[in-house]
Amino acid sequence: MRLGRERGGRKMQPGMRPTESVRAASEQQDSRLAAILEELKVQLGERRYALWCESRIRPSIADDVLTIAVESPFLLNCFQKQFKDVLARVAQKALGPAAQAVLTVDASLALDRPPATGRPEPWRSATVAAPARGAESGGASGAGKAAMWQGPSREEPATARQRRLADLADFVASPATELALTAARQAANWPGTRFNPLFLYGSVGTGKTHLLEGICRQLRRNHPQQQVVLITAEGFANYFTQALRDHTLPSFRQRFRGVDALLVDDVDFFESKRVFQEEFLHTLTDLADHGRQVVVAGDRHPRLLTKLGEELISRLQAGLVCRLEAPDLECRRRIVAAKAQRLDGEFAPEALEYIAEKFTGSVRELEGALNCLQTCYHMTGQRVTLARARQVLLDLHRDCLRIVRLADVERVVCGLFGLKPKDLKSDSRVRTLVQPRMLAMFLARKHTQSAYTEIGSHFGGRNHSTVMSAERKVLQWLESNATIRVSSQSWTIHEVMNVLEQQLLAG
Q1: What is the pLDDT of residues 112-156, one digit of tens each?
Q2: Which of 7, 17, 175, 494 is 20 to 30 A from 464, alpha carbon to alpha carbon?
Q3: How far apart are CA 23 and CA 331, in angstroms?
Q4: How many CB atoms lie within 10 A of CB 44?
Q5: Helix (H, G, I), strand (E, B) or coil at 335
Q6: DSSP H helical segments within 126-273, as ranges?
Q7: Which helix (H) or strand (E) segment is 69 a member of?
C-alpha cells in the first residue's frame, strides 16, 4: 500500500494523520528558525543581539531565501550597513551555500513589542466614534482609504480595525492656517449656517484631513443625533459605481442626500470624471440648499481644478475658500514639541529644534523624523541628543531635499496658464505668453542651479541677457504687486508666485 504525500512532496510517516503531519512540519520549521536566531546571536554576540535584534526582528524561510523582517526603516538601514555579511553567513549555514538573506520592514513588530518605559501605549487608549446603526464602516470593494464614518454615535475604545479621528483642539495653527482653523470651528459649532460649502485646500501634509476629521468629531460631539458622513471622493465614486451596477441609485441618493453633514476629502479625484462630478454636484447642491453642512478638501484652489465642470467649480467657491500652507519655523517648533510629548522617548531640546529647522516640507515629514528618533531611543534606551539626532536623520533629511529641474518649472507654469511647452518656447511676443515665460525664467533662476545661458537655451534658445531682463521685470512686479491674467481671472503676482512655488516644491 502506498503512503500518501503531504504538500511539498514530503512522505507521511506510517500511521500519521494529516493534521499530525502538518503539526510536525510546523514544529520542524520553528526549530529551524530558532536555530537561525541562535546562530545570529553567536555571530553578533549577546550584547549586540539584545540591542539590535531582541523582539525587533522576525525570520522566515522560503526555499533557499532567509527573510528577516525588522520593525522600522531606520533599523533596516542599520542592518544593511552593519550586518549584511553576518546575515549572509547565517543564511548559508542554515540553508546551504546558495542561500540568500533578504531584509524587509514589518511595522507590526514595533506594535507587538512593549514600550521601554512603564507608560501606556498610546494606541491602546485611542478612541473613535462607532458607525451608526445600519451604516457601513468602509467603502465599496477596492475603496482603499475611502472609508465612511457616520453618526449618530458614541465614543468607544478603539480596536485594531477602527480609526481614531483627529481633534480640532490638537491642530497647531500658524498665521497661514488660522483662518482655516477658525472656519472649521464655525462649521462644526454652527453647521449649515456660516460657510457652506467650506473648501479647504493646500499641498500634502498641511492639515486638510486633520481639519476634516476634527469637524466630524466635533459635530458628532455637539450633535449626537445628526447623521455625519466623512468620506473621500474616491469612496463616494465607489459607492456610486456600486449603486449603478446594482441598480440602487435611489437608495444611494437617499443615503447621501439625507445626511446632516457631508465631509469629502481629495475632491481633485473627480477631475476628468464627468459622471462622478455631476452626481456630486447634485448632492452638494441639494444639501447646501437645505441648510446641511458640506466641507470639501482638495490640493488646489477650485479655480485651478481645471478639469472639473464650471458649475461645480462655481458651487465650491460659493461658500468660503481657505488655503493651508506649510508651517513656518515657529509653528514647526510647536508641532514637534506637541508630538514629542505624546511619544515614548526622551529627546534633547536641541534634537527637536534640529527637526523643526531641517524638515520644512510638511507635518508628515516632522512625524517621520520624530518616529526615527523614537526608534533610536527604544534601541539604545538613552536620551536622544543633538549629535545622535544628526546621525540618525542624516539620510532621511538628504532624501527629503527637493531637486528642482528646468522641466519642473516648465511643467508648473504651463499647467497654471494652460499652455503647451512649445508655446512657452516660441518667439511670440503676445502678453499671454511673455508673462508666463518671464515667470518661468525667474523661477528657474531662483530654484535651480542653472546658469543664465542654460535657462535661456531651454526656453526657446534665448541669450543670457534676456533671462536677466526677465528676472528684473518679475522683481519689479513683486515690488508693485502687479496683476496678471490667469485664464479669465486677474491675479496678483504674489498669488501667482505662491501657487507656482507651492506646486514646484511639492513635486
Answers
A1: 555 444 333 332 223 333 333 333 333 333 333 444 544 444 333
A2: 494
A3: 57
A4: 19
A5: helix
A6: 178-189, 208-222, 233-246, 249-257
A7: strand 65-70
Could you please report the per-residue DSSP string of 413-462?
Answer: HHHHHT--HHHHTS----HHHHHHHHHHHHHHHHHS---HHHHHHHTTS-
pLDDT of residue 158: 41
112: closest CA among 60, 160, 157, 158? 160
- The DSSP code sequence of 96-133 is -TT-EEEEEE-THHHHHSPPSSSSPPGGGS-EEEPPPT
| CB neighbour class for 477 (10 Å; exposed up to 12, middle 13-18, buried from 19) | buried
Spatial CB neighbours of 506, under 8 Å, sequence gap ≥ 6: 203, 204, 361
Does residue 160 carry a pLDDT above 80? no
pLDDT value at residue 92: 86
Residue 506 grid coordinates = 511639492
CA distance 462 to 406: 14
State how far the Cα of 26 lies from the Cα of 33, in Å rounded to an integer.
11
Answer whether residue 345 shows pLDDT above 50: yes
Instruction: Spell out the residues 6+ positions from residue 441 whose beta carbon is closer than 8 angstroms to its own.
Output: 455, 456, 459, 466, 467, 470, 471, 474
Question: Mean pLDDT score of the chain, rounded to an integer?
Answer: 79
What is d(CA 438, CA 446) in angstroms, rounded to the nearest whole number? 12
| Number of residues assigned to the chain | 507
Amino acid residing at 57: I
Strand order in the sheet with 320-324: 149-150, 228-232, 261-265, 293-298, 198-202, 320-324
Torsions phi, psi for 263 (to 5 deg) = -120, 120
Distance separating the N- and C-terminal Cα atoms of the chain? 69
Rg value, the chain, Cα: 28
CA distance 111 to 105: 13
Sorted by where each starts, the structural domains of the chain and their CATH numbers stand as 18-111 (3.30.300.180), 127-324 (3.40.50.300), 329-400 (1.10.8.60), 406-506 (1.10.1750.10)
For residue 452 the three cell numbers come to 543664465
Q: Say which amino acid occupies 204.
A: V
Cα-based distances in Å from 383 to 346, 349, 372, 374, 399? 5, 11, 13, 10, 25
**What mean pLDDT do residues 166-183 have?**
88
What global pTM score does this model have? Answer: 0.56
User: In this predicted model, what pLDDT tens digit does every residue of 469-489 receive, in sequence order?
Assistant: 999 999 999 888 888 888 767
Please give the backbone phi and psi of residue 61, each rounded to the nearest 5 degrees, phi first: -125, 135
Whole-angstrom Cα distance, residue 288 to residue 349? Answer: 48
Please choose, from the candidates 240, 251, 312, 317, the residue with its C-alpha nearest in 3D space to the C-alpha of residue 276. Answer: 240
Place of cell 457652506: 196
The CA distances from residue 26 to 9, 37, 57, 99, 176, in Å, are: 15, 17, 19, 21, 58
